[in-house]
Design a protein that fits this description.
Serine Threonine Protein Phosphatase 5, Tetratricopeptide repeat, Heat Shock Protein 90, 3-stranded antiparallel β-sheet, about 5% strand, extended, membrane
């Protein structure tokens, strides 16, 4: 190899190396060793590493490195140079990994000791993982098991546990997701028992990267994300915790669990999200979607606006900004704020006035503005012209185009063109994400509107029924209101007034709930504001009353002092008058009589003044008594104020105690519900294990009858497993939604009728039953449908399943258009019929089997029927 020879020739600059080793000896690795043997090994390793690490390496460089490392390893073994041998081994692992050539390491397998074999097996596994070919899955599993076995013999528990990772990856490569999960659970449990939360967190994060989005089997994505959140919270990793809270909220939204999504997203936004975090707009956007579904207008608008504002600050991507403007427009439009919605759309197209418009996101946004300003016909012309100039290559954009132009045609009274474009949307030709649920809902609704205008009632019923297949938890409340109203209109037009009444009740209940949600929140805010203002007003009035009483007391004291001073002045004046009169009498020398008369007159005047003084004293006493009474009144008022405050504090304390007890009770109820759901979950998992064991057992059987019996048992166990699955997935863990349960059970049984081309027709009333009734019904249905598959048809056929309410009873009917019942059935058929008879007795029902154009099985049993909410 030219590069290899050049590397060897370039190494001859070392004088000592040039004197002791020839190029041929270095190239061939012959066992000639002199005083510079270790230098020979070091130089070969140095050249090998240079070939490995050089920029722009080629295949020839890796081949040269492989030869040099091999020769260095041989030389180190012969001369007993352990450090050189270890260095050669490490470099050989790097060369094999870089070249993705496991054969380099497999060639060393037989000459390696126990510990080195562990690391050889580990690096071989890494290489096969890097190749990622499913054909290498068995080889990868073989070396992973070898790694675990040798590590166990060498006493290396960490390496034994590390092998579980490669076993999990190997099973995943082989398509065995369940077995891969078992190995990852071993990994997590190993780190948990050693109190190593960091590695346990890494294990769960690694597993989350492997799981497909649709996986729901334990441990599911939700369970894994809960473990990650718990460990991240324990380790104090706030930013990492924020990211997983966002992903957990996104997963809850994908499953239609809006309340759970709201809880974790609000925690992420309120407590842990840093202001400059790149995903904050996504968190706020999801919160906007949550409140849009819950019909909280102000909150939805707040979070949609906050998502856009945050993105404008921390994100430079205009596409993201325009997406969030579109989300804001959707929120405005959903709550009847059309002008605000068009303003948000105008902001999308107004960012760059010179934009030529070959991007269909821009074109579709612009079409809405054309529709508003010029009408639907102009919008249709605009879109068709743009389609001719810029053909659509993105399938999702094509769906959005068909949906938009279908709405314009419907507004322009052209139902045929609207129907044509709506049918291009449903069912979608490509998988759609959660953001397109509303698109499908509106498309089905538009098709139903067209059919109703044409008086095609059955067709309209079919389109509305397809909305039931959409995730109900992801449909906003205004969408559910629209569906209820359309069902009411359809049933009214068809003359089905009882059903129309039920749908009208549902429509009013949904409308009232949306109104109550909004008005209740506003009323709560007004009550808080009113209570605050009332408290402030009472405090201000009490302050004014105290000030007024103080002013009255000061006024009375001043009046009393003024009256007392006036009386004293009057007495002084009278005294002076008397003295002056006596003086004048003496000076004039009047007679005694005149003096006596004068004296009498003065005495009368003195008595009058004395009386006036007494009155003044009495007035002063009255003023004093009034002041005392006023003081007592103030004291009583203050004492009443203190007593009222003490009573208020006691009432607040009692309210806090009651609230704490209520929270404790709610927590106990929540824990009870959680434990009950966990029990059902574990029962379902155990039944899944039983099904897997039966499936495994069937692989070792040759007898067709035995295999058929095992398959029947699997289907029966599956019917029971679905019951428990529905119980732990339901909000009420005590009852089962029979419509959803029967649909899933029939979907599972339909897999056995693909070759027979059996078609199912179902009419299941919206009822829920407790497990004691739902379980026998599921098993009866399983037996009846399975027997129909086996004995009823020689070719295509139809199985009809109905569950209706009649006279406080439920009637389950399973009918087929096959051969009907024979006088003597097979042993398997007799066993199935016996099982159905026993199950019917368990629910106090009656069983009737007859031939009416095929086999008809009717089960009538008493039940407390409850209409399932939201169905």
């Amino acid at each position: 190899m030219k590069l290899f020879l050049l590397c060897l020739l370039g190494s001859c600059y070392l004088p000592l190396f040039a004197q002791s080793v020839s190029r041929d000896q270095l190239m061939k690795g012959k066992a000639w060793y002199g005083p510079t043997d270790t230098l020979l090994v070091k130089e070969m390793l140095k050249l090998a590493e240079r070939c490995l690490r050089k920029p722009g390496e080629r295949v020839a460089d890796l081949d040269s490195a492989t030869v040099l490392v091999g020769n260095a390893m041989k030389a180190a073994k012969v001369i007993g140079y352990p450090s050189g041998l270890l260095a050669a081994r490490d470099l050989e692992l790097d060369v094999a990994g870089e070249a993705r050539n496991p054969n380099i390491l497999i060639a060393r397998w037989n000459e390696a000791d126990l510990v080195y074999r562990c690391y050889l097996a580990k690096n071989i596994c890494w290489i096969y993982l890097g190749i990622g070919d499913r054909r290498n899955a068995d080889t990868l599993l073989f070396y992973a098991k070898q790694m675990q076995e040798f590590a166990r013999k060498a006493g290396l528990p960490d390496v034994v546990n590390e092998a579980e990772y490669f076993l999990a990856r190997g099973q995943l490569l082989a398509g065995e997701l369940g077995k891969a999960k078992e190995h990852v659970l071993h990994l997590a449990n190993y780190h948990r028992t050693r109190n190593d939360p960091g590695n346990e967190l890494f294990t769960w994060i690694t597993m989350a990267g492997f799981l497909p989005p649709e996986d729901t089997v334990y441990p599911s994505r939700i369970y894994i994300s809960e473990q990650i959140v718990k460990l991240a919270r324990r380790l104090g990793r706030k930013e990492e915790l924020s990211g997983w809270l966002y992903l957990q909220g996104k997963e809850w939204m994908r499953r239609g669990r809006v309340e759970e999504a709201h809880s974790v997203l609000r925690e992420a936004n309120d407590k842990f999200v840093p202001s400059g975090w790149a995903r904050r707009p996504q968190v706020l956007d999801l919160l906007s979607k949550v409140h849009l579904i819950k019909a909280n207008a102000d909150s939805a608008l707040y979070y949609a606006t906050a998502a856009l504002d945050t993105s404008l600050v921390i994100d430079k991507d205009r596409t993201v900004h325009n997406y969030l403007r579109g989300r804001l427009a959707d929120v405005h439009m959903a709550f009847g704020r059309g002008q605000s919605a068009y303003d948000a759309i105008a902001a999308i197209t107004g960012n760059n006035p010179d934009y030529k418009g070959n991007d269909w996101f821009y074109i579709l946004a612009q079409s809405l503005l054309v529709r508003k300003s010029k009408g639907p016909a102009a919008a249709i012309d605009y879109l068709t012209g743009k389609l001719a100039a810029s053909p659509i290559t993105d399938p999702v954009a094509k769906l959005q185009y068909d949906f938009a132009i279908a709405k314009f045609y419907l507004s322009n009274n052209n139902p045929e063109m609207a129907r044509r474009h709506y049918l291009m949307v449903v069912p979608p030709p490509v998988p759609l994400g959660d953001d397109y649920i509303n698109l499908l809902l509106d498309a089905y609704t538009g098709l139903a509107i067209i059919s109703m205008r044409e008086r095609k009632w059955e067709e309209a019923q079919g389109y509305l029924a397809r909305t039931d297949s959409l995730p109900q938890g992801k449909i906003p409340i205004n969408g559910r209101i629209t569906l209820a109203r359309m069902y009411f209109q359809l049933d009214t037009a068809r003359g089905n007034y009882y059903a129309a009444l039920q749908h009208h009740i549902r429509y009013k209940r949904l409308s009232d709930s949306a109104y109550d949600l909004e008005k209740g929140r506003q009323a709560e805010e007004l009550n808080i504001q009113y209570a605050t203002e009332r408290q402030k007003r009472m405090l201000a009035e009490r302050g004014r009353e105290i000030a007024w009483l103080n002013d009255r007391a000061l006024l009375r004291e001043a009046l009393f002092e003024k009256t007392q001073l006036a009386a004293k002045q009057q007495i002084d004046i009278q005294q002076q008058s008397i003295e002056a009169a006596i003086s004048r009498a003496k000076q004039q020398g009047d007679s005694l009589k005149h003096t006596r008369d004068t004296y009498g007159l003065l005495n009368k005047e003195w008595l009058l003044q004395k009386k006036l003084l007494a009155q003044t004293q009495h007035t002063r006493d009255l003023v004093v008594v009034g002041g005392v009474l006023l003081t007592l009144l103030l004291a009583l008022s203050y004492n009443r104020y203190r007593l009222k405050r003490r009573i208020n504090r006691q009432l607040e304390h009692q309210r806090d105690v009651i609230a704490q007890k209520n929270r404790s009770l709610e927590k106990l109820v929540h824990e009870k519900d959680w434990l009950l759901k966990e029990v059902h979950h574990r029962v379902k998992n155990n039944l899944q294990v039983v099904m897997s064991l039966l499936n495994t057992q069937s692989f070792y059987l040759q007898d067709d009858a035995a295999i058929s019996a095992i398959r029947d048992s699997q289907r029966r166990v599956n019917a029971i497993s679905l019951i428990h699955q529905k119980l732990y997935q339901s909000e009420n863990a005590g009852v089962v939604d029979m419509r959803a349960y029967i649909q899933e059970l029939v979907a599972y049984l339909r897999e056995y009728s693909e070759e027979q081309q059996v078609h199912f027709v179902m009419d299941v009333a919206p009822v829920v039953l407790n497990i004691s009734q739902a379980l026998p019904i599921g098993l009866i249905l399983n037996e009846a449908v399975t027997n129909a598959f086996k004995y009823a048809f020689n070719g295509p056929g139809v199985i009809t399943i109905t569950l209706v309410e009649e006279d406080e009873h439920l009637v389950l009917t399973i009918a087929d258009n096959g051969k009907g019942f024979e006088e003597k059935g097979s042993e398997e058929s007799t066993l199935g019929m016996s099982l159905m008879t026993g199950l019917v007795n368990d629910i106090d029902g009656t069983l009737q089997m007859e031939n009416k154009g095929g086999a008809v099985i009717t089960v009538r049993f008493p039940a407390d029927v409850v209409v399932a909410p939201g169905i």
